[in-house]
């Protein structure tokens, strides 16, 4: 098994570190356009192998795509992160060019890979990758819901005073400050609906804090987050390479599911060796359906911006 991570910045390096620690592949390639950064981080990570006891062989490359040849899974994190006060959508102008160029280069050397897209605005970058590569829809997956759902579980755990691991909670829709939809009605604490334990005010607070989770961290850190994004991405890679069939909220191409067509948006999917294998219908109520349609409209207008670049 061979995995490539493009972009050896904060998220790419953290994702690679998680992949190596979990020994998800024999060969892991980090690639970056900035001279030396991928080689340096790859060596630094390899120098933890003796301490952590993993066998994955990590190498770095400055923009040499031949080194990525025959990857089974490719994670694309290349692109600018936002600064405090910015939205993810404001990154589209720069990141669209970066993601398109990277995806085309990767495809030349790894035509059979499954692509995971991280760069923001992620829903539109996933749609762009699908268009630019012409890959079958099951092999292009955007990472957003895995992260947002983990943040949702964190926020719930803070109010319930419990372990995030005991909570089951999913965020669907777009990966944007106003487009994501934390499905609190369906969230459970060891099978019991969390709404039983939380006031309406608490529920609204949890939803709001989840939706601006990325913006809150960006304000605190000065750039966007990487620990949870890296771990969320590695959990998707794990479900692919171990064919776990985990049910994860991911950004995938919709052809009528959840009432939407010709758009990539976050929905619950089964992730396995073939990429995303099946969309699961969560039977949204009228209010949730309306929120999903609104989210889709916002993402669609960002997709339209691609035509103007
Ligand atoms: N989908 C999500 O949930 C999620 C989560 C966190 C971050 N992000 C996004 O991921 C992206 C990366 O974030 P980060 O914090 O790692 O940023 P970063 O600046 O730390 O790293 C980005 C890296 O990409 C590299 N790069 C730029 N252009 C490249 C190219 N053409 N080819 C190869 N490498 C190139 C840069 O040199 C840099 O090392 C941002 O767009 C950010 O918004 C998305
Ligand atoms: O917030 C960001 O801009 C980065 C990422 O999308 C996140 O949610 O952490």
UniProtKB/TrEMBL annotation:
Transmembrane segments: none annotated. Its EC number is 1.1.1.37. It is an enzyme of class 1 (oxidoreductase). Residues 1-142 form the Lactate/malate dehydrogenase N-terminal domain. Residues 147-300 form the Lactate/malate dehydrogenase C-terminal domain. It comes from the Bacteria. NAD(+) binds at residues 7-12, 32, 95, 118-120. Substrate binds at residues 82, 88, 120, 151. InterPro entries: L-lactate/malate_DH, Lactate/malate_DH_C, Lactate/malate_DH_N, Lactate_DH/Glyco_Ohase_4_C, Malate_DH_type3, NAD(P)-bd_dom_sf. The active site is at residue 175. Pfam families: Ldh_1_C (PF02866), Ldh_1_N (PF00056). HAMAP family: Malate_dehydrog_3. Catalyzes the reversible oxidation of malate to oxaloacetate. Belongs to the LDH/MDH superfamily. MDH type 3 family. NCBIfam families: MalateDH_bact (TIGR01763), PRK06223.1 (NF004863). This is Malate dehydrogenase. It comes from Hydrotalea sandarakina. The lineage of its organism: Bacteria, Pseudomonadati, Bacteroidota, Chitinophagia, Chitinophagales.
